[in-house]
Amino acid sequence: MASFWGCPRRFGAAVCAALALLLAVDGSLRPAEASGPVMRWERGTCSRPLYFGITPDWPPYQYVSPSGSPLGDDVALIRETAKALGCPLVVEITSWSRLLSGLLSGKIDVIGGASWTKERARNHHYSSPYRQETLGLFVRSVDVGKLTLTGLSSFIGTPLRLGVVADTYIGGEYEKLVDDPAFKKIVVEDPRQDQFALVATKRIDAFLTDSGSGLYSIYRNGLDDTVTLYPGYLLDNGPVYYMFGKASVDASVIPPFNKALEDVLARRSAAGTQQ
After folding, report:
1. What's the predicted TM-score (pTM) here?
2. CB within 8 Å of 58: residues ≥ 6 apart
3. Helix 73-85 with 254-271: angle, nearest 10 deg
């Protein structure tokens, strides 16, 4: 099942209409004021369906088809894991900022592609890690030969504008610089996961994001001749996890979820289908 809230205009009328139809037919979106009982692991199964939230613009991990169906590696993996657990899964589609607020309020149980931080761990449970994230800088192809970027500090004192996704963990180097007033001047925060069109149209000069998603997105959007991954700058951002909201998911769910997740990853690895 899938539901949607807050359709951005950039997805177009057709996609938004399809997503709205899914919600109208499915009726699976829980009320904002009450997310229902806390999910527990009882008698070898989940006490209720698991509500998994995704953003629609982060391929190949999380995105929607033209008809509004949720797709992506994170979606496929948790579907397989939930099936192994015997837990019904409901996929909810919205913006990244609403996913985070939904976890805190209990409207959403779990999201994917989350980095571990001490601050987040106060209000969330984490699964076992399921992939490594590598960050890259995406710039206009015509600018590659003009730039000398050895790190994020290279942006300080230049007229360059660096785009980042708001409310995300973007690595230790960024965290060390983010409070520097000189660095803040060049950072442009935006809630969108897909900011490559902003690079192409010169609204920003570089976009710091997951390198795999970036390469996939520029090809998918026909921007691979205009926007490119800057050579020589790749940053290991560590593992990513499924992140559960403590407001709606009891800690008893995490060990069996991790066991099922690790079993799925092991089977995929053995079969040569690890994503």
Report:
1. 0.82
2. 72, 113, 193, 194, 210, 213
3. 120
CATH class of this structure's domain 133-238: alpha beta
Whether residue 219 contacts residue 92, with contact meaning beta carbons closer than 8 Å, is answered with: no
Between CA 164 and CA 151 the distance in angstroms is: 15
Closest by CA to 127, choosing from 178, 52, 69, is 52
Q: 227-240: per-residue pLDDT in tens? A: 999 998 888 889 99
In a 10 Å sphere around its CB, with 0-12 CB exposed, 13-18 middle and 19+ buried, how is residue 222 labelled? exposed
Give the integer Cα–Cα distance in Å for 176 and 171.
9
> Does domain 41-132+239-273 fall into CATH 3.40.190.10?
yes
Comma-separated ranges of CATH 3.40.190.10 domains in the chain = 41-132+239-273, 133-238
The closest alpha carbon to 67, from 88, 93, 89, belongs to 93
